[in-house]
Design brief:
Number of domains: 1
Oligomer: single chain
InterPro entries: Glc/Gal-6P_isomerase, Glucosamine6P_isomerase, Glucosamine6P_isomerase_CS, NagB/RpiA_transferase-like
Shape: globular
Order of helices and strands: EHEHEEHEHEEHEHEHEH
Catalytic activity: alpha-D-glucosamine 6-phosphate + H2O = beta-D-fructose 6-phosphate + NH4(+)
CATH class: Alpha Beta
CATH architecture: 3-Layer(aba) Sandwich
Low-confidence stretches: none
Strand order of the largest sheet: 1-10-9-6-2-3-5
Bound molecules: 2-amino-2-deoxy-6-O-phosphono-alpha-D-glucopyranose
GO molecular function, one term: glucosamine-6-phosphate deaminase activity
Function: Catalyzes the reversible isomerization-deamination of glucosamine 6-phosphate (GlcN6P) to form fructose 6-phosphate (Fru6P) and ammonium ion.
Radius of gyration: 17 Å
Family: Belongs to the glucosamine/galactosamine-6-phosphate isomerase family. NagB subfamily.
Strand content: 15-25%
Largest sheet: 7 strands, parallel
Distance between the termini: 11 Å
Number of strands: 10
């Protein structure tokens, strides 16, 4: 696991560099897309590169991590719409190449199975962008999630609903109670995991993720088992890392050509 501690703007550039390198090598690469505030600066940077430097998403494929159950198709907080607004529409990404679990399906388990199949049929995810919840969840895999789980329906914790109430007019009752989410096993099958976290409120989750024992109680810790996982954090999110100085030193002495 590589840990990079840097200002948020620099982290966004690093993540965008990794995505750009991938897309230049394989224009039809498969990207895993996260919602939440953590990846927004990365999406801004990708939109800038699309506009100013011709970075193309015309052949790229995208798979979202998760989706709320039951939000109306036109709800602005439906993750499919968030991804459309924050990244897809800004880089002229053809809508039929961006996929998400169907939180409005009548048969939700069948929709989850179909989603897993679609990821497999696409050849798997090349690079998965991730954020982390204050309770350590990745995607919507709440504490207690099976470390081998696949896409399925989950119940959101009270903490996650409180955290996400800011997107619903600060009214926690408006936040859906259920979601569909890629499982931890699904996420672990991606070839490169790139997690972003900023702010002191993420410090404990980041400490557990990087340095804690692997446990379903901190679902992100499963990433310690991934052969290519990158954790991009700012000073505040890194403030509880026991080996912070070592990660800083390691990154400073890393050759520039190496990339993430
Ligand atoms: N389902 C999303 C996650 O994919 C996200 O990583 C996390 C952190 O969100 P934020 O980046 O806004 O802190 O919580 C949300 O509930």
């Amino acid at each position: 696991m590589e840990v990079v501690i840097a200002p948020a703007e620099e982290l966004a550039v690093l993540a965008a560099d990794a995505i750009e390198t991938l897309l230049r090598r394989d224009p039809a690469a498969v990207l895993g897309l996260a919602t939440g505030s953590s990846p927004l600066k990365v999406y801004d940077e990708l939109a800038r590169r699309h506009e100013q430097e011709g970075l193309s998403f015309a052949r790229a494929r995208g798979f979202m991590l998760d989706e709320y159950v039951g939000l109306p198709a036109d709800h602005p907080q439906r993750y499919r719409n968030v991804i459309e607004t924050e990244i897809a529409s800004r880089v002229a990404w053809p809508a039929e190449q961006v996929h998400g679990p169907d939180g409005l399906a009548e048969d939700l388990p069948a929709a989850c199975a179909a989603y897993e199949q679609a990821i497999t049929d696409a050849g798997g995810v090349d690079l998965q962008i991730l954020g982390i919840g204050t309770d350590g969840h990745i995607a919507f895999n709440e504490p207690g999630s099976s470390l081998a789980s696949r896409t399925r329906i989950k119940t959101l914790t009270r903490q996650t609903r409180v955290d996400n109430a800011r997107f619903f007019g600060d009214d926690v009752d408006q936040v859906p109670t259920h979601c569909l989410t890629q499982g931890l096993g699904t996420i672990m099958a991606a070839r490169h995991l790139v997690l972003l976290a900023t702010g002191r409120h993420k410090a404990e989750a980041v400490h557990q993720l990087v340095e804690g024992p692997i446990s379903a109680m901190w679902p992100g810790t499963v990433m310690q088992l991934h052969p290519h996982a990158t954790v991009l954090v700012d000073d505040a999110a890194a403030s509880r890392l026991q080996l912070g100085d070592y990660y800083r030193q390691t990154y400073l002495s890393k050759p520039g050509w190496q990339g993430l």
